[in-house]
């Protein structure tokens, strides 16, 4: 009789899980629940009101490193009589270039109305992982997002908004990976970091498959990011490998388990009674979130090994916007404390 050790069983289970996730991400990593037309229209109206009242504004900031202009949307602090800190809030895989962004999919305009923090949202950067690519990609172009976000953009924001210079950064999905790497790359710039539903790995098989799904699935060549998959750049940008660089920061990391949660029901505005849409969200968004859950547990373990304090939040749920709206609200007290200490 063949015996199977617990270690071998665990490895086989993980391998089977990864194979399943690969099959799902091949369908499309960016498939997530988005708000219906009515909800998006109401949010557009609220944004327009905020623009008219001066509570929101759009900027175009030139990036010398990328030789292009980058659209930036800002929700300014409620009380601007004194300088205020800044939260840089990143969109997911599409970079905010379509409808899948914070302003169309969440109630962020209302949420920010009484907050004394400037919220700065780049509305570009799709499929870039918000990092500096080593090569210009034939499809996705020249990407130097680490340089832009950590060196070029902050001085412009500080001057435009008369900001304090205290910053934090948060992001979802693809950017959930990016914000951790950015906080590690520029430890002096950010006091806090919040990652929602990101896979915090770039050297593991699952982490690299996630990158391939996002970048390769949209025509890019992932070897143009940090070189071949075994090149040092992949390790240099792995948030788990470099977790020690997060010491001293306020850290919030969240992921759903992939099992249906409180927003995964037919009455959800993104589903609106559509059984097919419900099946898509649970059948695709569930496994995607299960993948980020696996990655997040690895980061959780590493931070505990390093004795670095962090808030890690797990709950049932899929890879979809209602959960990210919830997580921004849940992480806000921690981010606000870090920004105002």
Q: Which runs of at least 5 residues are low in confidence (pLDDT < 50)?
A: 26-31
Report the strand count.
8
Count of alpha/pi helices? 11
Largest sheet properties: 8 strands, mixed
CATH architecture designation: 3-Layer(aba) Sandwich
Characterize the overall form.
globular
| Overall SS class | alpha/beta
Determine the CATH superfamily. Answer: Alpha/Beta hydrolase fold, catalytic domain
Beta-strand portion reads 5-15%
* Count of discrete structural domains: 1
CATH fold-level assignment: Rossmann fold
Overall pLDDT: 91
CATH class: Alpha Beta
Strand arrangement, major sheet: 1-2-4-3-5-6-7-8
Helix and strand pattern: HHEEEHHEHEHEHHHEHEH
Tell me the Rg in angstroms: 19 Å
Helix content: 40-55%
Amino-to-carboxy terminus distance: 63 Å
Descriptive notes:
- By secondary structure, the protein is α/β, with parallel strands linked by helices.
- It has a single domain, classed as Rossmann fold (3-Layer(aba) Sandwich).
- The protein has eleven helices and eight strands.
- The protein has helices at 6-25, 37-52, 102-105, 108-112, 145-161, 174-185, 205-215, 223-226, 232-236, 275-305, 321-340, and strands at residues 56-63, 68-75, 86-90, 118-122, 167-172, 190-196, 250-256, 311-315.
- It has an eight-stranded mixed beta sheet, with helices on both faces.
- The longest helix has 31 residues, at 275-305.
- It is globular.
- Keywords: Transferase.
């Amino acid at each position: 009789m063949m015996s199977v050790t617990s270690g071998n069983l665990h490895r086989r289970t993980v391998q089977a899980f990864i194979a399943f996730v690969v099959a799902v991400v091949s369908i499309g990593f960016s498939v997530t629940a988005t708000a219906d037309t009515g909800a998006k229209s109401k949010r557009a109206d609220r944004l327009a009101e905020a623009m008219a009242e001066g509570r929101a504004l759009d900027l175009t900031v030139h990036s010398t490193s990328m030789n292009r202009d980058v659209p930036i949307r800002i929700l300014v602090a409620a009380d601007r009589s004194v300088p205020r800190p800044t939260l840089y809030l990143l969109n997911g895989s599409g970079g905010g270039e379509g409808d899948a962004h914070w302003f169309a999919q969440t109630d962020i305009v209302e949420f920010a109305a009484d907050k004394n923090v400037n919220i700065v949202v780049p509305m570009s950067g799709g499929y870039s992982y918000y990092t500096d690519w080593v090569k210009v990609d034939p499809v996705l172009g020249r990407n130097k997002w680490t340089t832009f976000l950590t060196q070029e953009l902050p001085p412009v924001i500080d001057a435009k908004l008369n900001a304090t210079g205290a910053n934090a950064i948060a992001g979802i999905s693809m950017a959930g990976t990016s914000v951790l790497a950015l906080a590690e790359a520029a430890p002096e710039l950010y006091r806090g970091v919040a990652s929602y539903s990101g896979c915090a790995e770039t050297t593991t098989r699952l982490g690299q498959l996630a990158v391939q799904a996002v970048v390769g699935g949209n025509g890019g060549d992932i070897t143009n990011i940090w070189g071949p998959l075994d090149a040092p750049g992949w390790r240099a940008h792995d948030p788990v490998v470099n977790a020690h660089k997060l010491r001293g920061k306020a850290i919030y990391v969240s992921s759903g388990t992939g099992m249906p949660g409180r927003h995964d029901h037919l009455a959800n505005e993104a589903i609106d009674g559509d059984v097919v849409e419900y099946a898509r969200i649970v059948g695709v968004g569930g496994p995607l979130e299960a993948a980020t859950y696996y990655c997040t547990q690895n980061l959780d373990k590493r931070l505990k090994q390093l004795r670095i304090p962090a808030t890690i939040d797990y709950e049932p749920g899929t890879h979809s916007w209602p959960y990210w709206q919830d997580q921004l609200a849940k992480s806000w007290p921690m981010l606000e404390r870090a920004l105002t200490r």
